[in-house]
UniProtKB/TrEMBL annotation:
Highest rank taxon of the organism: Bacteria
CDD domains with a match to the protein in the record: ACS
Residues passing through the membrane, by range: none
Function: Catalyzes the conversion of acetate into acetyl-CoA (AcCoA), an essential intermediate at the junction of anabolic and catabolic pathways. AcsA undergoes a two-step reaction. In the first half reaction, AcsA combines acetate with ATP to form acetyl-adenylate (AcAMP) intermediate. In the second half reaction, it can then transfer the acetyl group from AcAMP to the sulfhydryl group of CoA, forming the product AcCoA.
Molecular function (Gene Ontology), one example: acetate-CoA ligase activity
Entry annotated with the keyword Nucleotide-binding: yes
Domain AMP-binding enzyme C-terminal: 540-621
Lineage: Bacteria, Bacillati, Actinomycetota, Actinomycetes, Micrococcales
Any Pfam family: AMP-binding_C
Protein name: Acetyl-coenzyme A synthetase
InterPro entries assigned to the protein according to its UniProt record, in alphabetical order: Ac_CoA_lig, ACAS_N, AMP-bd_C, AMP-bd_C_sf, AMP-binding_CS, AMP-dep_synth/lig_dom, ANL_N_sf
Gene, per the UniProt record: acs
Residues reported in the UniProt entry to bind Mg(2+): 546, 548
PTM: Acetylated. Deacetylation by the SIR2-homolog deacetylase activates the enzyme.
Reactions catalysed according to its record: acetate + ATP + CoA = acetyl-CoA + AMP + diphosphate
Length: 656
């Protein structure tokens, strides 16, 4: 970490917003002044200006029972109405909402009127299946327009969606369906990934079946299936129905009923420091207000002229807030792309930007670094002159990648917004405003208007400029998580206990304030890894590894990786009994595949080392810090607290 900090400290490049950009920008300096003078009044203004309220609110924030916040609680709205119907009623029905590009190259242009129509039909189908207010619906879909429509239809009827990333395994899906008690699963036969159809429905069938003594899943009554991949699927006529049969047959009349602002909107599972993923709960009014506001001012969306593209999958929070809710609440036109960046050729994304004239582009540092590796020749083959703003999210962006992004993709002129936020925060919290802030490569810089953050030491004291510490959020914000599904205690413990006397939310990230007071994020300070911008917990992968018959013990660390930011590296002790009965050859490969099956391909360790022992303290805690040294090829640090100080030299030899 210290070499990383030194490196960041030496970064002195500065980029002022281009004059024309600043002149036309949505975000203005007055926003900061207004928010500083009256934070709650500021958010109330945003919520009123950006959203339609069936019943206007009179209360703004209720923080009488911290850490359980309520925003705009006596107001009523319908989230889907805000993202759809009102744009049609305002005369913008013919504006394109989604410019969809399938991986094999098909194209669909869907207007706001068409999307509204589709969502109304889906809402009728859902209600016909007995889904209503407060019911949970799991969504396990590829990046196709139906994914957005499904989320909005669930929101429209006041039900709660739980989107599960299509790359997660049947077991991960099952755990999420069980935890939420979902009544319905919306999936597809399969979707295109890397040039072939990757099946989804078979994973749903597996998830719902009785496997490994799990018993048959009991809450799911129906599975609604979009035909996309054309792959063969098994069919349970009592349970399964095709989208293409049910939806067109349903009525396109559906009234958007108002729901209270605090009506739950979705649960999204994310990795924490323990083995069990947490179901992060978000509600309606505050979430949508901050989603719409940040998308407007940070991404500088001008809905009548921009073509916006956020490359995140809807399975992640970025896809929720900056594909589905933010841009559609603002009435923007956006690209939705199904596949991977390098299929069928490494210039696929740049081709999409040229084809649709994308003007705002929001992606992750890991993607930028992998493009850097391929070389500038690839993007330079395409006309990227439509781009006027670039954004980054998911992990710290190193200054080299930032500058490459600006120079090669942004023609040395577009502003870059490096946006820090989390599944839990619901929307962007720290970022430059592109028409105002002079940007610094590698720094997320300043809290957005209306957000209060600090960097503090272990006892919660402000560290002062020039120092590092822990990132905290010091005041409640509209799109904050409202809890962990079914586990209020864990919510308090995880986020609020560390600085309970101050009432600060602890984000789990380390950060540093520079001499100007700007924030530089330094990565997680807990056992959460960040691989290609995806959060993974060491504990979750360890528990998958020890669930394999061969494994006695396992320790997992996130090791620095040039492309993915961090990579999963596992140290595994194999059971003696297993070694007696089996050849150890190929075991590392078997375990990699196993982890992929248990959690999903993103969790597969890059390296697995079979070792004889793990470094432990006298109290039995695994010292992951030392394993990280080995995994990153460094001199092993202080081993004096180990129970057996010889262990590390043995491990180092085994790894070489
Ligand atoms: C939106 C999202 C959250 C964690 C967060 C932090 C890291 C996200 C970042 C960033 C540095 C940025 N993170 N954006 N670190 N600079 N601009 O990614 O949510 O998947 O919940 O991850 O990602 O470590 O705590 P999520």
């Amino acid at each position: 970490m210290s070499s990383q900090i030194d490196h960041l400290l030496s970064e002195t490049r500065r980029f002022a917003p281009p004059a024309q950009f600043a002149a036309d920008a949505v975000g203005t300096a007055e926003l900061y002044e207004r928010a500083a003078a009256d934070r709650e009044g500021f958010w109330a203004d945003q919520a009123r200006d950006l959203l339609h309220w069936h019943t206007p609110f009179t209360q703004v924030l209720d923080w009488t029972n911290p850490p359980f916040a309520e925003w705009f609680a006596d107001g009523e709205l319908n989230v889907a109405y805000n993202c759809l119907d009102r744009h049609v009623e305002a005369g913008n029905g013919e504006r394109v909402a989604l410019l969809w590009e399938g991986e094999p190259g098909e194209e669909r242009r869907i207007t706001y009127a068409e999307l509204t129509d589709e969502v109304k039909r889906v809402a009728n189908v859902l209600e016909g299946l007995g889904i209503g207010h407060g019911d949970r619906v799991a969504i396990y879909l590829p990046m196709i327009p139906e994914a957005v429509a499904a989320m909005l239809a669930v929101a429209r009827i006041g039900a709660i969606h739980s989107v599960v990333f299509g790359g997660f395994s049947a077991d991960s899906l099952r755990a999420r369906i069980d935890d939420a008690g979902a009544k319905l699963v919306i999936t597809a036969d399969g979707g295109y990934r890397k040039g072939k159809v990757s099946p989804l429905k078979p994973a749903v069938d597996m998830a719902l079946a009785d496997r490994n003594g799990s018993g048959e899943q009991e809450t799911v009554e129906h599975v609604l299936v979009v035909r996309r991949g054309g792959n063969d699927v098994e069919w349970n006529p009592e349970r399964d129905l095709w989208w293409h049969e049910a939806v067109p047959a349903a009525s396109a009349d559906h009234e958007a009923r108002p729901f209270p602002a605090e009506n739950p909107l979705f649960i999204l599972y994310t990795s924490g420091t323990t083995g069990k993923p947490k179901g992060i709960l978000h509600t309606s009014g505050g979430y949508l207000a901050q989603a719409a506001f940040t998308n407007r001012v940070v991404h500088d969306v001008h809905p009548e002229s921009d073509v916006y593209w956020c490359t995140a999958d809807i399975g992640w929070i970025t896809g929720h807030t900056y594909v589905t809710y933010g841009p559609l609440a603002n009435g923007a036109t956006q690209v939705l792309y199904e596949g991977t960046p390098d299929t069928p050729h490494p210039g696929r994304w740049w081709e999409v930007i040229e084809k649709y004239g994308v003007s705002i582009f929001y992606t992750a540092p890991t993607a930028i670094r992998s493009f850097m590796k391929i070389g500038r020749e690839v993007p330079q083959r395409f006309d990227l002159s439509s781009l006027r703003l670039l954004g980054s999210v998911g992990e710290p962006i190193n200054p080299e990648a930032w500058v490459w992004y600006r120079n090669i993709i942004g023609r040395e002129s577009t502003p870059i917004v490096d946006t820090w936020w989390q599944t839990e925060t619901g929307a962007i919290m720290i970022s430059a405003l592109p028409g105002i802030t002079e940007t610094k490569p590698g720094s997320a810089q300043v809290p957005i208007p209306g957000i209060a953050i600090d960097v503090v030491d272990d006892s919660g004291e402000h560290v002062g400029n020039g120092n590092g510490g822990l990132l905290v959020i010091t005041e409640p914000w509209p799109s904050m998580l409202r809890g962990i599904w079914g586990d209020p205690e864990r919510y308090k413990e995880t986020y609020w206990d560390k600085f309970a006397d101050k009432g600060y939310y602890f984000a789990g990230d380390g950060a540093r304030l520079d001499e100007d007071g700007d924030v530089w994020l330094l990565g997680r300070v807990d056992d959460v890894m960040n691989v290609s911008g995806h959060r993974l917990s060491t504990a979750e992968i360890e528990s998958a590894l020890v669930a394999h018959e061969s494994t006695a013990e396992a320790a997992v660390v996130g090791a620095a990786d040039e492309t993915t930011g961090q990579a999963v590296v596992a140290f595994v002790i194999i059971k003696q009994s297993f070694l007696k009965a089996h050849e150890p050859e190929g075991l590392a490969g078997t375990l990699r595949t196993w982890v992929g099956e248990q959690i999903g391909a993103i969790a597969r360790p890059r390296d697995i080392y079979i070792v004889g022992e793990l470094p432990k303290t006298r109290s039995g805690k695994i010292m992951r810090r030392l394993l990280r040294d080995v995994a990153e090829g460094r001199e092993v640090g202080d081993t004096t607290t180990l129970a057996d100080t010889a262990v590390m030299s043995v491990i180092s030899k085994q790894v070489k």
